């Protein structure tokens, strides 16, 4: 093997600090492209000029635009630099050229994880979990902590993340890949028919998301300031779902008693408060183009707290909204 190729392989190993694929770039142009990437990374480590780094990146891609290893290497550098949007672009370019490129799927999943775009991270890692143990480990973390299922009070989850959960096709494909990964997760069975007493296994990733950022002030039904962006993203995602899919708005209250009211009266008022807040969410979604006929209210009062405790933050977190998208309605042959 020529010394140049041996050197380039060492460069890739030092560059990625991962377990790189044992692929030798096929042409001298691609060898030179790898050298340029190494020099760009070296400049970054030395605090060099960012413009010169970008020039090296661009020259590298001009030399070797159709090699997935080059895009993957460049994406790894960009991820280390915190340039996540550019890294995602190049990971996706690598995957266009090689759809089963496990290292690129892992890198893409980790970039989404750095961005706290957890549903997309879970989806990307599911593409590699059968062959890449680090992706499997990340999936176990994501599922165990349920990062993908809850958006915090100061965050906004975008439509692309929500569609991982709300799109029937994407979620079904995700659950099939997760099942193939043999994760040894506890599966919950639930009764589906009282007559036949049949049961079904609850999917690993259900079509529901919790929005603790849509929290209401105590005793209030008006939407708090700062919720417009999140409601826009929810509506964008719901508009991409099938028209026959029912959208359930689960509205929760906290456990606080009303002043000078009995426990029973407080429960009644909390239940009504849950309904009024759910109506507020429904009206906001209707204003954004979601048909009211698809929207159903499920009020839970304080019976299903997300967190325990009586601190102001715990109480505010429990005044949350869950949005669930049911499967599309299909008519059976027996009907």
Q: How many separate domains make up the residues?
A: 2
| DSSP E strands, number | 7
The CATH architecture of the largest domain comes to 2-Layer Sandwich
**Helix/strand order:** HHHHHHHHEHHEEEHEHEHE
Looking at the structure, the CATH topology of the largest domain is 60s Ribosomal Protein L30, Chain: A
Report helical residue fraction: 40-55%
State the name of the first-level CATH class of the largest domain.
Alpha Beta
Give the full name of the CATH homologous superfamily of the largest domain.
OmpA-like domain
- Major β-sheet profile: 5 strands, mixed
Question: What Rg, in angstroms, do the CA atoms define?
Answer: 25 Å
Shape: elongated
- Strand adjacency order, main sheet: 1-4-7-5-6
* Average pLDDT score: 79
Q: Any key phrases for this structure?
A:
five-stranded mixed β-sheet, alpha/beta, disordered N terminus, 2 domains, 8% strand, 7 strands, two-stranded antiparallel sheet, Serine Threonine Protein Phosphatase 5, Tetratricopeptide repeat, elongated, single chain, 13 helices, 60s Ribosomal Protein L30, Chain: A
